[in-house]
Write a structure and sequence with these properties.
Helicase, Ruva Protein, domain 3, alpha/beta, Beta-Lactamase, 42% helix, 673 residues, 25 helices, 16% strand
């Protein structure tokens, strides 16, 4: 994207430029129009908006929008924006202090919150209403970088005579919007302003860099806040085992939801139904429940809302929902809603995947153990959730355990639970195991092949007898749980090697489902690619990107040893790094380009008998709400990248100990690259 498209001043000589624009401005304010081509489109359009709004071009100063207590409240509402901006100013102060420039920070409506620069310069600026509390929106102060950036939600530079109002034509200002990385909302604007004679051609680039830095800082804090929110959710969700439970952040955005909530929403995305409901999070009790009625589908009724408050502020809340049984026949209420949701969650239209969906529906009718086998990243967890939702456990818990992340010492206590004092470090009140938590529902044992032999013995006993005894207790507890296990290994081979018990293998494989790798699903690569690109456009608040025909063909030919997860990761990297709206083969990762060259453009000749294993959490191939593990994984991954692998900084930002961070990095198979 060329800088002129962002609102940058043309390169003509300054004197000629001033004369041309000044003539155009005089014509415009007197006649309401000027000759085409006299000014840049971005400026002409802004002048037109000012004229339409009745802005007086002779007005002397912008109006005061907030002062005293009102200004204090406005700053409090934008506290994190100001803090992030201050940190950025500290990095830029040496650059700007010697250039007769200053930095202004405005909130999302264009009201100034702070002015940073030389103290003597800032003091003189107050007399010209360049100070906190003054409204620099286009509707009040005419064309200017702050107000026009707010109006357009993109970077812009306004040079001297391009301003609409006479009194501000001594300045050249360059501004960039600060965008929420999660939902694309405008959070504020950062602006670099200088007197015309001191103008620098780098000002707009500097403003854009500062805005990106602030966005990254704010996003990191949002991720850290959500980690704390998810921890609270994990400890609270057990009170509503039979209900749908949705976790919302402080802006009403869906962070995660339990399986029942996903089932209740059927094919409709929870996010589309519940986002933009920011005002309800101001409530701190269940009194807000009635307000949710209009936001939910007719078949769903809200029954409780509980806010999460931290340090006197509402950080989010839990919404509890149930099916409105009066809206549908009671005997069919949940299954009808659930079936389409569970099946639609598995994206794909190839014959193989359609056959697997049909088989999954049949397997759901039985409570017998199910073994799902398939390569890493192929979507085994999606089929496990589909079987759970459609089957008899649809109203009950779905407890997922990543066996590969359990150490040998903790595995038994995690699965069976423990009594107070059972071992050093045990919780004073003891803790139920995953079998007890899944009672009446489904226990999903992912990476089952990673369990040690002694843990396999304990698991086998529960499967045989249907009872658990917590560590430190001889009391047996009856549990009714459907076991769904998944693995990317050949358990039959593991049995032969002696690393997996034969009796446990046959207990688990009463029923089986072999998930196809992506390379055996013709047509699904294109379907998934288009879906992911749409998701990324929403996530990063960037214009949608398309695949050029050659790239589309290459993606379909590549064997994808990492399956859907690898496809998503590659596309996300290309999406973020690309400067164009049309993605091409030139932007493919080096390893894929190298493999393509070495195989004469024919990936199908490659031997994929030993798939690459990625020890990350599953990336769903559908636009669904993230699981708790996925949310945590993504937060840690992004912080490691942002802080260049500095674990101390990452732990501090996320609010966890270094030892906990090390354990999570290891369990998710993350690196600091």
């Amino acid at each position: 994207m060329q800088i002129q498209h962002l609102g940058r001043m043309p390169i003509e000589s300054e004197a000629s430029f001033r004369r041309q624009v000044d003539i155009a401005w005089t014509d415009f304010v007197n006649k309401g129009e000027c000759r085409p081509g006299q000014v840049r489109d971005v400026i002409h359009d802004s002048w037109q908006r000012c004229l339409n709004r009745g802005v007086e071009f002779t007005q002397h100063y912008p109006p005061m929008a907030a002062s005293g207590a009102q200004l204090d409240l406005l700053k409090q509402e934008n506290e994190e924006l100001l803090l992030a901006s201050h940190n950025t100013w500290q990095m830029l102060s040496d650059i700007l202090s010697d250039s007769e420039s200053f930095l202004t920070v405005a909130e999302s409506n264009g009201v100034l919150l702070d002015v940073c620069g030389d103290p003597h310069l800032c003091e003189s600026l107050a007399g010209q209403r360049i100070a906190p509390g003054y409204d620099w929106s286009e509707g009040c102060t005419g064309t200017n970088a702050v107000g026009t950036a707010v109006a357009l939600k993109r970077p812009v530079e306004v040079h001297s005579v391009e301003h609409f109002c006479e009194t501000v034509k001594i300045w050249t200002c360059s501004a960039a919007p600060i965008i929420d990385a999660i939902d694309g909302d405008l959070l504020g604007v950062i602006d670099v302003t200088t007197l015309n004679h001191a103008y620098s051609a780098q000002s707009l680039a500097l403003a854009m860099t500062a805005a990106r830095q602030i966005e990254q800082t704010l996003h990191s804090r949002e991720l850290a806040r959500n980690v704390t929110l998810v921890d609270w959710f994990a400890g609270s969700v057990g009170r509503w085992r039979q209900d749908g439970v949705v976790l919302l952040d402080r802006k009403g955005r869906v962070v995660t939801a339990n399986e029942k909530a996903k089932c209740l929403f059927a094919s409709e995305r929870i996010e589309e139904q519940l986002t933009k409901n920011y005002r309800l999070l101001e409530h701190e009790s269940l009194a807000a429940v009635k307000d949710w009625e209009e936001l939910l589908p007719r078949a769903i009724v809200p029954v409780a809302y509980e806010a999460y408050n931290r340090e006197g502020r509402t950080e989010g809340g839990i919404l509890v929902i149930r099916p409105r049984l009066a809206a549908v026949r009671p005997s069919l209420a949940v299954p009808e809603l659930v079936e389409s949701s569970a099946v639609d969650a598995i994206v794909g239209q190839s014959p193989g995947i359609l056959a697997l969906k049909t088989r999954a529906l049949r397997l759901a009718a039985s409570p017998a153990p199910l073994l799902i086998q398939g390569e890493t990243g192929s979507g085994k967890d999606l089929f496990a959730r589909a079987v759970h939702c459609v089957g008899k456990g649809q109203d009950s818990p779905f407890i997922a355990v990543n066996c590969g992340a359990l150490t040998r010492e903790l595995a038994v206590s995690e699965l069976l639970g423990y009594e107070p004092g059972a071992f050093t470090g045990a919780a004073p009140k003891g803790h139920p195991g995953k079998f007890e938590e899944a009672h009446g529902g489904t226990l999903f044992l992912d990476e089952i092949g990673e369990l040690s032999l002694d843990v396999q013995v304990a698991l086998l006993r529960v499967l045989q007898d249907g009872v658990v005894a917590r560590l430190g207790s001889s009391k047996e507890r009856k549990v009714e749980v459907r076991i769904i296990a998944a693995t990317n290994r050949s358990l039959a081979a593991a049995v032969e090697e002696g690393s997996f018990r034969q009796d446990l293998y046959y207990r688990l494989k009463v029923m089986s489902l072999d998930v196809l790798p992506l390379r055996e699903r013709p047509g699904d690569v294109e379907l998934l690619s288009d879906l992911f690109l749409k998701q990324f456009a929403q996530t990063y608040a960037i214009e949608p990107r398309q695949l050029d025909p050659e790239l589309r063909e290459v993606l379909c030919q590549y064997p994808w040893p990492g399956n859907v997860r690898e496809l998503r990761a590659v596309l996300e990297s290309m999406f973020v790094m690309s400067d164009t709206e049309l993605l091409s083969c030139d932007e493919l990762p080096a390893d894929i380009l190298s493999m393509r060259a070495n195989t004469s453009h024919n990936f199908n000749k490659l031997n994929i008998s030993q798939p690459t294993v990625f020890a990350t959490t599953a990336c769903h191939a559908q636009p669904s709400v993230a699981t708790l593990d996925e949310l945590e994984y993504e937060a840690i991954r992004k912080e490691l990248i942002l802080h260049k692998g500095n674990r101390s900084k990452v732990a501090r930002v996320l609010g966890i100990s270094r030892s906990t961070l090390y354990r999570k990095i290891k369990s998710y198979g993350l690196t600091e690259d």
